[in-house]
Structure formats: structure tokens, C-alpha cells
């Protein structure tokens, strides 16, 4: 069966061509939310730009949806929380349009300083008003950059070339990193106080919504100029209009608006405000980049792989993949085994990374693989890397992750303890080489089990005859025993037996095994 992919905003041909080879592609732009809700149930993936609002309703109706791709950077038009709940991967293409947005910011800043759009309109009307459009130089002015990420940094480089003094505010970037680019990191208050021009380059999130508001504007320099090529909503348009009316703000350049198109924004009609219709990413080069990136990520996810820029799941960087993969594979198998060994209502899962495993760069990813291994087989909802933690939390399962140098004689060890309202069970595993991983203990008893295939795991009193009786039952049921290990702490006390078998063990045989004199518990599991 070929996958069906819906593209609901204009995407460059280069990306569409790649997709067409892989899936059945429908391109339907300009859909209302209701129209999207009506059709989304037929699709495995949805690819958008900023024009489509991917709401919780749309996601709920997307019964087959596995992937939502954003051909660009900002994902504020996608309800990622709703997608996460449903285990749908959301990815973006954040690098492809960085330079396009940067150059647009520079163009807007220069146009603002020299009144170019206003002068252009005036000349085209037949006027010749040279003194009306007196501008200011950017040379030696202070540029305040709010948000020093990909675009903020590229803007700084170009502004420095024009001899502007760049200062920046970004709570998640170190002063050293900024200093290495010749940029001074300052507080937001300082930035507002010192900058001649302020340009914002943050995502639109709770913390940045109306970051540029009336209170902030009041603390800025008289005659400040504002540029927003990031997201509408970072600047409070009403406060900006008031700031311009009072003369506090000399002008503003806006590519993005609180509501797009900005039909009733108070700033649109103002002479001092220059605007473009969200064109930051609209270059041939950027559109080609983001379309190809999102098409490739979509194909990879639908083919069972991962995506490079997933925004709602932990991502393992390429350079870590070879290191992490054997642990992740083992962890999922351990989780799968453990869930089959426990009884009762699962209340808590504790994961301990010991020895070299404690220093792994991405234990969060491995822990999610454990949750996937444990929860996916038993729940109706698909559990994957995206929603594993959410699903556990929703079910009230407490999750803890600890690290320790202690590795119990192994180079590395991962121990998972599951607590239910009736019991506690533990499984430990270790990776000895990229291709060799073992389950090294169950319930505190040493074992050496390849994590694959069918197993019978029992606890019994260590006395003659018990093992023989179990073997006889399996033989009678035509189940061949491929391997046997018995672990015990002291002769005559409880022992743990792990039998690897070549085929599934019928439930009746398991019942019979449980009735054998000396057997305490017996479980059949598929790993
Ligand atoms: N107009 C357009 O067409 C385009 C707009 N954009 C928008 O530009 C913005 C920046 O994009 P990128 O640089 O690629 O993103 P990025 O993720 O590389 O950088 C964003 C920066 O904002 C910082 N930040 C987060 N919260 C902050 C806060 N409360 N205060 C200050 N800084 C904060 C982050 O630490 C990060 O360094 C985004 O909103 C994106 O959607 C991006 C491309 C095109
Ligand atoms: O990438 C971004 O964040 C953008 O704002 C670009 O939006 P667009 O893809 O041009 O609708």
C-alpha cells in the first residue's frame, strides 16, 4: 500500500517531486479548518508552511496521521502537544530558510532607516519630495537583537559589516558564545535602554508573547526603530501603534502579524510602519531547501526511520547514533520482557544507568525506548518515542532515571525495576559490543540471555526433580528447549530458571508448569 501525503501550503517542486516517487500526493491549499478536518483522516502525513493551522481538532481527525512536517522553522501554527499525545511525529526544516529570513531582516532594517517603501510609493504617484524622506544611518548605531539563535546570529554578522554595535539578549546562549562573535550579551532591560534599532528573532511562545509591549516601549530610547521578521504576537501591535502616535517609536518594519493577513491591525495604516506579507522565507533558494528537507524527513518517518529535526521527541544526533543504538535496542527488549513478567497495576518504573552507561549522552532517548517496549504491547494507543513519556504520565506511572558508577562487574549495565500494586520485578542488561547485548540478571539472579525469541522464566525451590518435570511438560507439548540457565543465591533456596524455547508455549502447558510441586511462579514471554 502506498502512503498518502497531503500538502496544504505551497511547497517547492523539488520537494514535491521527491515525494511523488514515494507516495500518493495531494496538494490542496487554502483549506478551512473544517475542510481539513473532513479529509485529513485519509492521510498518513501532512506537510504545511505557516498558512495552515494544524489544530487539535485536525490532529484528532487524523486517524492515520504519523507525521506532520513544517517546511520552515516556526511550528507555532501546529498544536504539537495534541500531536505528541497521539504519538504523531512533528518535524520542521529550520536551517533551510535562515539566510532568507536574515537577508529579509537586513532589507527591512535598511528600508526602514531610509524610508524606501514610502519614497518609492511617492515617486510612483508622480511626486518628488526629497526632504520628506530624510533618513538615518545605521553606521555606529546600536542594534539590539532579541533571540540570538540561527537568524539572530546571522543578522549580527551582517550588521557588524555595516559597523553597527550589536548587543543581544537570549537567556539560552552563553555570553562567551556571543563574545566570540563580537556581540555583547545584555539583560533585556539594558537592551531596551541602549538600542537604536531592536530586532526580534525568538520563537512565539508563552514567554515571548507581547515581549515588546507598552511597558517595554516606555523604557526604550526615544526614536527607537523596531523590526519583527520573526513572529506576529512578539510585538503588541496596539502598544506599537501607541508608541508611534506618541513619537516614542520612530518607525517599525514588520513581516509578521498577530493575525495574518492583518485585516484590522492598528499599525497597518501608519506611515511610519513598513510591511511585507510574511516574506522572510520566500526566496527560491530557501523554498527549495525546506521543501527537500521536509520531503526527505517525511519519507524517512513513513518508512519506519526517524527525522532529523523532530520537535516533539528526543533526537539522537547523527554522531551519537552508533553509540546509542545497541543500548536503545537492548532497552526496548528489556522493557518488553519485563512487562510480561509482572502482575498487577503498574505504578512506577525506575531505570538505573550504571558504569559506562551512566555517561551515555542520551539516556532520555533510551528510557523512552524502555517505555515503548513496556507499554506498546499492552495498550490500544500506539506508544512510540514521541508519546512514551506522556502515555506513562497519563496513566499515573511514575518514572525515575538515575545514574551510578557501579556496574556490578560489567562495563555497563542498565537496570529496570517495575513496581506494581502486587510486586516488584527487575531486569538488568549490558552491551558488550555493538552487536552483543545480553540480559544479565532477572529479579536479582544472574543470567546470560540473548534478548530475542521465546522464553519460560520460573522461580522454584532448588531441589531435585523440579527442572525435569518442567522439561517433560514442554517435551510432551512438542516445545523444544534450546537453552537452560539456573541462577540461585544459595543451594536449597529459591532459584530462577530461564528456558529458551524454539516455539511459543501454549497456555495450558504454562498452567501445568505452574502446578509442578516446588514451582513458585512461571511466565512465558516473547522478547
Ligand atoms: N518571517 C519569516 O518568514 C521567518 C520567520 N522565522 C522565525 O524567526 C524566529 C527565529 O528563528 P531561528 O533563528 O531559526 O530560531 P532559533 O531557534 O535558531 O533561535 C531562536 C532563539 O530564541 C531564543 N529564545 C527563546 N526564548 C527566548 C526568550 N524568552 N527571550 C529571548 N530569546 C529567546 C532561543 O534561545 C534561540 O536562541 C522564529 O520565530 C521563526 O519562526 C524563521 C524563518 C522565516
Ligand atoms: O519558517 C518560518 O518560521 C516562517 O515563518 C516561514 O513561513 P512560510 O513557510 O513562508 O509560511
Order of strands, main sheet, comes to 8-7-6-9-10-11-12
Enumerate how many helices there are, as a single number.
Answer: 17
Give the end-to-end Cα distance, rounded to a whole number of Å.
28 Å
**What portion of residues belong to β-strands?**
15-25%
Number of strands: 22
Short précis:
With 527 residues, the protein is an alpha/beta fold. It is 34% helix and 25% strand.
Walk me through what this model shows:
The chain is of the alpha/beta class. The protein has three domains: 111 residues, NAD(P)-binding Rossmann-like Domain (Rossmann fold); 178 residues, Rossmann fold, CATH 3.40.50; 208 residues, 2-Layer Sandwich (60s Ribosomal Protein L30, Chain: A). Helices cover 34% and strands 25% of the residues. It has 17 helices and 22 strands. The strands form four sheets. It has a seven-stranded parallel β-sheet with strand order 8-7-6-9-10-11-12, with helices on both faces. A six-stranded mixed β-sheet has the order 14-13-15-16-17-18. Strands 2-1-3-4-5 form a five-stranded parallel β-sheet. Helix 5 crosses helix 7 and helix 14 crosses helix 15. It is elongated, with a radius of gyration of 30 Å. Bound molecules: 1,4-dihydronicotinamide adenine dinucleotide (NAI) and 2-oxo-3-(phosphonooxy)propanoic acid. The site of 1,4-dihydronicotinamide adenine dinucleotide has 33 residues, from helix 5 and helix 7.
Amino acid at each position: 500500500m502506498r502512503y498518502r501525503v497531503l500538502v496544504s501550503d505551497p511547497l517547492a517542486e523539488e520537494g514535491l517531486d521527491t515525494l511523488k516517487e514515494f507516495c500518493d500526493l495531494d496538494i490542496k491549499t487554502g483549506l478551512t479548518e473544517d475542510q481539513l478536518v473532513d479529509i485529513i483522516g485519509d492521510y498518513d502525513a501532512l506537510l504545511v508552511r505557516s498558512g495552515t493551522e494544524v489544530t487539535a481538532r485536525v490532529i484528532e481527525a487524523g486517524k492515520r496521521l504519523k507525521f506532520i512536517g513544517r517546511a520552515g522553522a516556526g511550528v507555532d501554527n501546529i498544536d504539537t502537544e495534541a500531536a505528541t499525545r497521539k504519538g504523531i511525529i512533528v518535524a520542521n526544516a529550520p536551517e533551510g530558510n535562515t539566510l532568507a529570513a536574515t537577508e529579509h531582516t537586513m532589507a527591512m532594517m535598511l528600508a526602514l532607516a531610509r524610508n524606501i517603501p514610502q519614497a518609492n510609493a511617492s515617486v510612483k504617484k508622480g511626486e518628488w519630495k526629497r526632504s520628506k524622506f530624510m533618513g538615518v544611518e545605521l553606521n555606529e548605531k546600536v542594534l539590539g537583537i532579541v533571540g540570538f539563535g540561527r537568524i539572530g546570529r546571522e543578522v549580527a554578522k551582517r550588521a557588524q559589516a555595516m559597523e553597527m554595535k550589536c548587543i543581544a539578549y537570549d537567556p539560552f546562549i552563553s555570553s562567551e558564545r556571543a563574545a566570540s562573535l563580537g556581540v555583547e550579551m545584555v539583560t533585556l532591560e539594558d537592551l531596551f535602554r541602549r538600542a537604536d534599532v531592536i530586532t526580534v528573532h525568538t520563537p512565539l511562545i508563552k514567554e515571548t508573547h507581547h515581549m515588546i509591549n507598552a511597558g517595554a516601549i516606555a523604557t526604550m530610547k526615544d526614536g527607537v526603530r523596531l523590526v519583527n521578521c520573526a513572529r506576529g504576537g512578539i510585538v503588541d501591535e496596539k502598544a506599537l501603534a501607541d508608541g508611534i502616535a506618541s513619537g516614542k517609536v520612530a518607525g517599525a518594519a514588520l513581516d509578521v502579524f498577530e493575525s495574518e493577513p492583518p485585516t484590522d491591525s492598528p499599525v497597518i495604516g501608519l506611515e511610519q510602519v513598513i510591511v511585507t506579507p510574511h516574506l522572510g522565507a520566500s526566496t527560491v533558494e530557501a523554498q527549495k531547501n525546506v521543501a527537500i528537507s521536509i520531503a526527505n524527513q517525511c519519507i524517512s518517518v513513513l518508512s519506519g526511520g526517524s527525522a532529523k529535526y523532530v520537535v516533539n521527541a528526543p533526537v539522537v544526533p547523527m554522531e551519537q547514533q552508533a553509540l546509542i543504538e545497541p543500548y536503545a535496542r537492548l532497552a526496548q527488549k528489556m522493557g518488553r520482557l519485563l512487562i510480561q513478567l509482572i502482575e498487577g497495576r503498574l505504578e512506577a518504573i525506575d531505570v538505573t544507568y550504571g558504569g559506562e552507561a551512566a555517561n551515555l549522552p542520551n539516556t532520555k532517548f533510551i528510557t523512552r525506548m524502555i517505555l515503548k517496549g513496556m507499554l506498546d504491547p499492552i495498550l490500544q494507543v500506539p506508544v512510540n518515542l514521541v508519546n512514551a513519556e506522556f502515555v506513562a504520565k497519563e496513566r499515573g506511572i511514575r518514572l525515575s532515571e538515575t545514574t551510578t558508577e557501579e556496574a556490578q562487574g560489567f562495563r555497563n549495565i542498565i537496570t529496570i525495576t517495575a513496581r506494581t500494586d502486587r510486586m516488584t520485578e527487575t531486569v538488568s542488561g549490558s552491551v558488550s559490543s555493538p552487536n552483543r547485548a545480553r540480559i544479565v540478571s532477572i529479579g536479582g539472579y544472574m543470567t546470560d540471555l540473548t534478548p530475542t525469541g521465546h522464553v519460560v522464566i520460573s522461580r522454584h525451590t532448588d531441589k531435585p526433580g523440579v527442572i525435569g518435570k518442567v522439561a517433560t511438560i514442554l517435551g510432551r507439548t512438542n516445545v523444544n528447549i534450546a537453552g537452560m540457565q539456573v541462577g540461585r543465591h544459595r543451594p536449597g533456596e529459591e532459584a530462577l530458571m530461564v528456558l529458551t524455547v524454539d516455539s511459543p508455549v501454549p497456555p495450558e502447558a504454562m498452567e501445568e508448569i505452574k502446578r509442578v510441586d516446588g514451582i513458585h511462579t512461571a511466565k512465558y514471554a516473547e522478547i
